[in-house]
Amino acid sequence: MAQEQSSSSTTTTTTVPDLNSPPFSRLFVLCGKQVTAGALEQFFAPYGTVEQCHIVHDQHTGQSKGIGFVKFQKTSQAARALKEADGKHIEPELKPIKVEIASSTIESKPLDCLRLKVKCAAELDADAVKAEFGKISAVNSVQLVPDKKSPGNNVAYLSFESFLDAALAFETAKPEHKAKFAKIKPRKVSLESVQPQEARSFFRPVTRRRSSTLLPPTKLTVLCSSTLTQNQIWRLFDIIPGLMNCSISHDGGSISSATVTYNNTQSAKYAREKLHKFEYPIGERMVVRDGSE
User: Fold this and answer.
1) What is the CA 115 to chain-centroid distance, rounded?
2) What CATH code is carried by the domain that includes residue 89?
3) By CB neighbour count within 10 A (0-12 exposed, 13-18 middle, 19+ buried), where does 215 fall?
4) Which residue ranges does the record assign to the RRM domain (predicted)?
5) Is residue 255 assigned to a domain?
């Protein structure tokens, strides 16, 4: 009897995939409330091996929130799905879906998926490294720095044309390259390094009404439907890493104003570009602009 129970337990055990391995292999999908987990998995299956797929439901009502997550076996599979599936339709919904890289528990920025860090021999110059990786992917640039941990070798930082290019290079790199996605560090700008002719483009005009324009544009103003709650706005903008705060105010009309704050300018810019004029809820477009505007 004990053996039967042990056998039954073994057959029902399921392996939960590591959501952070490989990196950037999990997608966030705004798909509409009528899409089921089965329909979502069937839709994304042609792009690669789907390890996990689920729809987010309201804890109180049990109803779908129209949000799904799809975890792929490979980064390149997620990259291809992101490139080709965004804007398509999943039956029975008529509105196009929106696909993004899902936020990870590992802190990352939106453009980290476009950059790789690889180890290479010191005799290889930037052109040689670019030529090697260019056989597979479109390489934009290569920056070489001495490898402090391995004297006589270099570390190369490669930026790619697209997420799919970076993913293919990451997966096909030789073991000795020890390729990994590289975080993009914020650029530090010294005021002393700004030339006089560049000053007018570096600073925006200052007026009394817009005296905050000298502050880093990490704050966004969102005009949205008054039917949306602060939690819904938070969940939407939280797909982009770096979200720090979200607050919404209702004035009794059909439009509400929300303030969204990120911890870096890059995430704020990316959120503005991706979510401006996005229909949420379906049929009602949001307006996303810099908080200083």
Assistant:
1) 13
2) 3.30.70.330
3) exposed
4) 12-104
5) yes
